[in-house]
Amino acid sequence: MRSAKIAFASLVALFASFACLTLAPAQPGSPGPMPAPPASAAPAEDGQWTMPAKNHASTRYSGLAEITTENVKNLQVAFTFSTGVNRGQEAAPIVVGSTMYVLSPYPNILYALDLAKPGAPLKWQYNPKPEAAAQGVACCDVVNRGPTFSGGKIFYNTLDGNVVAVDAESGQEAWKTKVGNINIGETMTMAPLVAKDKVLVGNSGGEYGVRGWLKALDANSGKVVWTAYSTGPDKEVLIGASYKPFYDSDKGQDLGVKTWPPDAWQQGGGTVWGWISYDPDLNLVYYGTGNPGPWNSDQRPGDNKFTSGIFARDLDTGEARWFYQFSPHDLYDWDGVNEQILLDMEWNGQPRKVLVRPERNGYVYVIDRVTGEVLSANVFGPVNTSTGVDLKTGRLQYVEAKKPQMGRVVRDICPTASGAKDWNPSAYSPRTGWLYLPHANLCMDVEHSSANYIAGTPYVGAEVRFKPGPGGHRGVFQAWDVRQGKTVWSSTENFPVWSGTVVTAGDVVFYGTMEGWFKALHARTGELLWQFKTSSGIIGQPTTYRGPDGRQYVAILSGVGGWAGAVVAGDLDVRDGTAALGFVNVMRDLKDVTTKGGTLYVFRLP
Amino acid sequence: MSALARLLLLVLLAFAGCQREERSFRADPVATESIEKVALVPLSPGPSGPVTDTSGKGKEYENNAYHLAQGKTLYKWMNCNGCHANGGGGSGPALIDDLWIYGGSIENIVQTIREGRPNGMPSFRGKIPDDQIWQIAGFVRSMSGNVPKDAAPGRDDALHPRPAENRTPEFPPVSGGAPPPR
Known about the structure:
- The complex is a heterodimer of chains A (606) and B (182).
- Chain A is mostly beta strands.
- Chain A has one domain: Quinoprotein alcohol dehydrogenase-like superfamily (Methanol Dehydrogenase, Chain A, 8 Propeller).
- Chain A is built from 5 helices and 38 strands.
- In chain A, strand 19 and strand 20 form a beta hairpin.
- The two termini of chain A are 37 Å apart.
- The relative contact order of chain A is 0.14.
- Chain B has 182 residues and is an all-alpha fold.
- Chain B has a single domain, classed as Cytochrome c-like domain (Cytochrome Bc1 Complex, Chain D, domain 2, Orthogonal Bundle), CATH 1.10.760.
- At the A-B interface, strand 29 of A face helix 4 of B.
């Protein structure tokens, strides 16, 4: 019955996409035409992949269609390359012209590969020589989520808190700006976003009592143009006259101070280590803020603004336009840093500019990106910690019985600290109208304890152990209908899906598993069409591009690690379930199926 | 056995237990830095191995229940558990296995805490008093079962991640050791 429905739906969708993409009638019973990213944020396909999220709308959709659901089964390895580093490989390989840029985890070496020559030989490598001690204040493996390209330069962050700009042709350093301080626990792991002449970067360190910020650097000089903190007084959060949040609970003066115990905002977290999107028409940047510190929520009564939420800011000045808090007074380490996909869609018959955000707390949010109003918030994974989102107040409705406590173990909390979905980004296909969502299926036991703030050391205050979620499988890859707000198909994985994904105009969707399989699924049915076993577990972000030979290629970094894979990457001892902030408890058997690695794989049809 | 003999045995047993409770009530001044001659490696030119000379202070801390219990408390208060968890590790390496990158003796561990290590271990010199560093180092040794069972701490009240230190199997430091697979 279900599969018949899906088949029918896909037939209709297929027909629709043939007819006309944006004006086509939608699936039966669904509201309005196919949502599509604004053209200004998602320009037409040029065969390159110049930033991790593909475009400013963060769709991770490629218009290339040489690889189809029919021929994907013939994919073969075109070339491989070792990053030389055996830690978690979370970066996206990016392609500009005939060069591919690959970034390793710490020590953050940037490699340029010449795609125009057989075997894609190394053109040059650039080593920023980050401080080795930075590894000690990186909570969850020494990962990096990728470089980005703009105006002839490659930009990226180093673990020890530097932003570097490297000439894309020569590999010479253009500038290097130190913005983070490891002695207070700050590191940098996120991929910068370049919009106009500004490089947007944020810090990591939510487990170290770091105060989160987003900075805009001048792309030419590397000078900091503005800094917007996530906590503290309005003038440091860059809240002024143009700040008009939708919900009352986000209105008021100096909420970044008043929603905390005295001075706690100074170690309050809200770090900015995730994804940024940019709408050129509105000139607004969108990004999320991390969890409040410490995890022990009893030590920080109040809403803890502006953590675990999303900001819209003016690109030129950094001034906040609106803010919405996914998890007010976060109880579970639910960073609000996931990706936001910018779409224009019809909502109750009206065209709306929205952003779609799959959030750690287990809901996919559809938010009006002009006003910050939540249009819908629907559950996509097992959730017993909240009963829903009150659309009048915007507030998440917590379940009292699942609130962690001091001195008592609260059991079977779903989702976990890592969330129903963590950092690993989803992709949106304007051909199906579906979001492709890689995520985890986990629950946890938690006991809070008193956290001690010692600068440069962890500031957590929780004993945690993870366990598999309902059903026993630990990972899920699903297609989510953005208009209907529900799952279309889903596919389970033994281990959490910690890789990103990409979807193409050939209706093929790619992702990797922690065992090391790189998979291609049918975007309309979820059917497994092809898989290849790489040398180590995959937690990276696939990309696809048209090579100098005019052929379509698919690239992925293999190399297990990250928070979920720390048990292997960090040689952790599985007898202690609380290791890696509780993740080891549910990942003991990862050691049986994979080992450390760091290899780029690139595939092509024969 | 006569009642007297039984009593005598009991008294003897009671006294035998005293060593684990023995303590000096005047710890060294906080700014003291005890110097122990230790090596990080078993390799040294010549057949005799590395030259080392330790004062015996290590044994004093390792065999003493009070010091180990203090060490267990300080391990959390100083946020050691933030990186090393309850011994399984996290951003820092595991402490309950037999792999010791910078040496597994209590003197090595004291040096590691005091000086820091290149790949992320912070230096706590001047931040933790000398005798507390020894207490933490003693407790760290107990996590892999390398202190007397009668002196090692018992289980704590919190979420129970692994056997308590006094029940933990012994994992003596091995050069080139590795975490057990599972």
